[in-house]
Amino acid sequence: MPIDLNGYWKMISNDNFEEYMKALDVNVAIRKIALLLKPDKDIVHDGDHLIIKTLSTFKNYNMDFYVGKEFEEDLSGVDDRKCMTTVNWEGDKLVCVQKGEIEGRGWTHWVEGDELHLELRAKGVVCKQVFKKT
């Protein structure tokens, strides 16, 4: 049975984020700003429908999707690309595959105790972020 991701989560760690942004070809000015941020996650999880909001003082990004249904994702708030995205449960992990210009792009969310873990992937680069439930 999938885990419950509902809640408000505050970032507590962000490892290898600059290398991940480089893999996405994010320009140096945006990278420098993004490295200063500690975004929060606000997640509404209702069955197979999820809304994941990434909130910061610089930019917000909203992802609204149904598990198992492919959709076109507009990443203009991230790296100005579009991709075809599918999110599925693999055990108790929520796994996203983003097909487009960037090879091996995607992410995985899972919960350990009161921490939300996020692994971001692109071109073989892995960024690991951890958030604490508030």
Any descriptors?
single chain, 10 strands, 134 residues, 54% strand, mainly beta, ten-stranded antiparallel β-sheet
Largest sheet features: 10 strands, antiparallel
The quaternary organization reads as: single chain
Q: Report the mean per-residue pLDDT as an integer.
A: 94
Computed over alpha carbons, the radius of gyration is 14 Å
Task: Quote the beta fraction.
Answer: over 45%
In order across it, which strands form the biggest sheet? 4-3-2-1-10-9-8-7-6-5
Helix content range of the residues, please? 10-25%
Helix/strand class: mainly beta
State the separation between the terminal residues, measured CA to CA.
Answer: 23 Å
Uncertain segments: none
Helix segment tally: 2
Question: In one word, what is the shape?
Answer: globular
SSE string: EHHEEEEEEEEE
Blueprint (SSEs and pairs):
Elements: E1 7-15, H1 17-23, H2 28-36, E2 40-46, E3 49-55, E4 61-66, E5 71-74, E6 82-90, E7 93-99, E8 106-112, E9 115-122, E10 125-133
Antiparallel strand pairs: 1-2, 1-10, 2-3, 3-4, 5-6, 6-7, 7-8, 8-9, 9-10
